[in-house]
Amino acid sequence: MALALRTGALALLLLSCASGAPLEPLPTYPVPARLIAPAPARVTSKLPAPPGPLPALPESPPGSLPAISLGDIGLAGPVEVLSSSSSGAWVALCDSERRARLVVGSGPGEVVDELLAEDARGRYVVVADGEGAQLVDAAKGSRVNLRQMGADVRRIRADYAAHRALSFDASGQYLAYSRRQSGAPTQLVVRDLEAGTERSFSLGPGELLRLELSADARYVTFEAIREDTNKNGRYDWPAPEEAPRKGPCGKPPLRFRSFSYQGRGDVATRGVLRLADGAMRDVPELVTTLGAALLLRAADGALVLDQGGKRTPLAPASCAARALFTDAERQLVLAACAPPPPKRVKGKPLPPPTGKREVWLFGPGLALDLHRELYETAVDRGAELGARLVPLYPGSEANLVDLERRELLPLPAGSRVLATQGPFALIWRDSDLYRYDAQAKREERLVHGVWKTPELLRAGGAVLLSPFLVTSASGPAFTSPERPLALTAEGFVLTGSSEGAGSVIEGPLHWVDARLPPPDGPPR
């Protein structure tokens, strides 16, 4: 999804957390007596004719998306873009009557209630439509009503978070979702999107809170409420259920309301479903999946790697590590560690804590102090695929961590990394864009003249920083069309018409190939 850079937006969002509005009641679900029991150690699916095991490391999805449509997108009149496919296959927008529309290809599109989930490759999107939840395939033009198949698409009150029960893998080949049927345990379902086949697995006793399909489609991790921990006879979510949005157009921006509900509801436990053999188990100490292994946090705070029951220590308990970045391919963890206690000096009080943590790189047989500090964090990041360079910003400094070479690469002050691809990084500094080569450890200026308050859009490896567009971290740079609204990974920019700076964007919209000289006549 394209992201717009706006000065001060984060500060406004943080201020919105201070709202004194009363808390809404939490959703509750009766707990049958037979279900108040410990979770089973292993639960497997019972399918009459399973379509076969999912591949451990899926290849690129078969087939290809059609060429980007160069026709009119949406209707005439004022328009606002809600979201768009990274491939340009679809656009979600608000029309002049403040109705949300989904346009696949080109044309006026169809009125929908809201977007629920989308895959990173830009082919699939799930939208709420009346009483349905449509899984739309932009390549085939087909759709499947997931709600008719029992999909539980309720959302939890957690702004700016991914949908709790709909999750695509990084390649866009699979969709994991929750199926909830009356009188039966919840099922975790993994759908092969190209083939249209599904595998389902019983969650066992309890209420599903969240699920997530790992980037490499090896695992489905989940959070489940297994017990009625507050002893009120029902399962309580930790935050209220979000009411369905009947059109997101014209509504005030979301807030970080989920922080208001911390500590409420029943205690949830983490678990994992291994798709190769269907084995499911609760793993309360789970941090994230890491390739074929699991990254666990022991009771004393140490990080360990569990692969096939064999545990390899990564970070010691004294580190109390939090995962800043986890590399599924190399099984590396970039972590923030608690610093050692200060030395006591006779006659002097202990210095106050700084709130900073040391940055280390851990892996099997590797513990590397990067000699950098960051402010404390309580969040663990999930595993990612395909990254070699990871940006790191300790204070006013800027660095890249090269996971391939296991080293820290300092960057000039004021640098901001916009994208990485293999050994290359696209860097913004002052009014210049640079290409940095981590292999040769040198940078080259691509272009000069970035605006003081630019638009920032990103899709795949493409970056638009007004007035320039770069389709990959290795360059080159092109001139962006004016008033960009969205971007594709291939370098197409979504534009509309307007009378002047700050004026309302008018539809219909068009995709313009920014890699080519501007054409004569109307948009192509």
Short overview:
1% of the residues lie in helices and 42% in strands. With 524 residues, it is an all-beta fold.
Layout of SSEs?
Elements: H1 9-15, E1 28-30, E2 73-78, E3 80-84, E4 90-94, E5 100-104, E6 110-111, E7 114-118, E8 124-129, E9 132-137, E10 142-145, E11 155-156, E12 166-168, E13 174-179, E14 187-192, E15 197-202, E16 207-213, E17 219-225, E18 234-236, E19 241-242, E20 269-274, E21 279-282, E22 286-290, E23 293-297, E24 303-307, E25 310-315, E26 322-327, E27 332-337, E28 356-363, E29 366-375, E30 383-384, E31 389-392, E32 398-402, E33 407-411, E34 416-421, E35 424-429, E36 432-437, E37 442-448, E38 456-459, E39 462-465, E40 468-470, E41 477-479, E42 486-487, E43 492-497, E44 506-513
